[in-house]
Structure to design on (483 residues):
């Protein structure tokens, strides 16, 4: 197998086979060259849905650029500002190319993260009672769930589409009923391409299907884009939100709203700020917003970090998003098979999985609870404590996705509404008691580009040696303060 070298870097870049694949040996080389800090520090990182990790070349590229040039605030045309403006505009073009979006139809707005991109849509969308409502899948990140407060403020209703067990997917008939809308009304339909709780891939076919029925569609691609191709030319969402650190680890503090230009024109901003206006009068108390992306980028964009989006995209695309997808799928299959085999001596399962049992229509995010020797759920704080001691980074808790958790733990709507109506302030333990839950959440394991089979096997060994035939003690756990 041949290997290519970049002109400016002696670290090896991956080379694909004639069929376009990148095998495990190539990913091992990538791991050693670009993510060697994991093995050098003895760290097993399995929280890629929380944050991807940066390749060393990404960090070196920024240092090289910033130490060889002068970059100023892009809101002018000085010799220092012009390079910043050019780099930011180049990043917009690269984002559209990455997403398969036609520049004649789509606009890129840079934001602080996917949450900020959601807020831009929520605060500006023309929600109206009975005419422009909000439709959500029960499986949504809280950054999307929060849109309902903008709808509520304008007296528009919010409807949730339920999930079916055990895979935590949406049934076709439920989707069809919801898209008819109450009283024939339409509005904004929001869902994740990949669940940040269960890893479920919700069908992108929903996008044209909903748009044909009069809905605008917001696609949360934050958990999806790291290991799956975005093709907005085919799945033409009106609004797509991303956080770049979830795709390639660095930079943090930069996200994007990729909006159909026609849909962006529907948004009515409730305020203006520096950088968003074409002209403004203080004494006359009037203003006109700038056109396009500028009207939505409050203040000065992160002009030092945004150019590194190009560096990250160059890196991921040099490997190939399809190759990353296949790599993540192989490791996820290994993880799922290994979890299914974990048993206590009496044959009882050691884990309880939430979501799909196979890699069909799912990503590299796996939610589970550990079960003790008596079959009871092990408090997720215990797993957090023990995994931290073993230098394993994973996620425990609710993952900012209450709907998927409510479906996974089979919490009924009546109990949730009754608990929410209680006026007395409850502790987290009080809420759990009211809802009859044995634990405060689940354990989430997620794999990514730098992950290896050794990482997966180390986790499986940890679970077996730490919890098999045991009822671990909960002594000394800190009280829960939030979900």
């Amino acid at each position: 197998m041949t290997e290519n070298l970049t002109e400016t870097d002696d670290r090896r870049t991956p080379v694909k086979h004639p069929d376009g694949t990148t095998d495990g040996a190539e990913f091992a080389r990538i791991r050693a060259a670009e993510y060697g800090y994991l093995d050098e520090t003895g760290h097993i990182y399995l929280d890629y849905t929380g944050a991807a990790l940066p390749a060393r070349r990404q960090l070196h590229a920024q240092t090289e650029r910033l130490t060889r040039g002068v970059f100023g605030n892009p809101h002018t045309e000085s010799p220092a500002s012009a390079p910043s403006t050019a780099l930011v505009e180049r990043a917009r073009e690269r984002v559209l190319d990455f997403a398969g979006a036609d520049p004649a139809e789509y606009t890129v707005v840079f934001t602080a993260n996917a949450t900020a991109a959601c807020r831009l849509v929520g605060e500006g969308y023309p929600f109206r009672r009975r005419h422009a409502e909000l439709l959500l899948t029960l499986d949504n990140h809280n950054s999307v769930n929060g849109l309902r407060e903008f709808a509520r403020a304008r007296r528009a209703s919010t409807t949730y589409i339920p999930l079916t067990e055990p895979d935590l997917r949406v049934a076709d008939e439920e989707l069809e009923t919801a898209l008819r809308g109450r009283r024939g009304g339409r509005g904004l339909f929001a869902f994740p391409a990949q669940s940040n709780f269960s890893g479920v891939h919700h069908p992108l076919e929903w996008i044209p299907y909903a748009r044909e029925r009069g809905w605008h569609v917001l696609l949360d691609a934050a958990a999806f884009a790291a290991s799956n191709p975005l093709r907005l030319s085919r799945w033409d969402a009106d609004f797509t939100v991303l956080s770049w650190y979830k795709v390639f680890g660095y930079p943090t503090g930069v996200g994007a709203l990729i909006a159909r230009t026609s849909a962006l024109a529907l948004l009515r901003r409730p305020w203006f700020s520096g950088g968003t206006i074409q002209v403004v009068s203080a004494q006359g108390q009037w203003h006109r917003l700038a056109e396009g992306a500028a009207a939505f980028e409050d203040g000065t964009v992160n002009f030092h970090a945004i150019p590194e989006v190009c560096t990250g995209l160059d890196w991921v695309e040099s490997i190939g998003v399809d190759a990353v997808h296949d790599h993540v799928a192989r490791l996820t299959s290994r993880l799922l098979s290994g979890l299914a085999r974990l048993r206590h001596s009496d044959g009882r399962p050691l884990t309880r999985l939430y979501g799909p049992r196979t890699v069909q229509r799912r990503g590299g995010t796996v939610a589970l609870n550990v079960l003790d020797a008596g079959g009871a759920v092990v408090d997720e704080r215990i797993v957090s404590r023990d995994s931290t001691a073993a230098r394993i980074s994973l996620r425990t808790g609710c993952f900012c996705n209450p709907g998927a958790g409510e479906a996974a733990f089979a919490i009924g709507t009546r109990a949730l509404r009754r608990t929410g109506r209680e006026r007395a302030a409850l502790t987290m333990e009080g809420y759990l008691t009211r809802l009859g839950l044995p634990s405060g959440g689940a354990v989430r394991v997620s794999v990514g580009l730098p992950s290896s089979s050794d990482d997966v096997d180390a986790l499986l060994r940890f679970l077996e040696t730490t919890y098999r035939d045991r009822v671990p003690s909960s002594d000394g756990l800190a009280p829960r303060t939030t979900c």
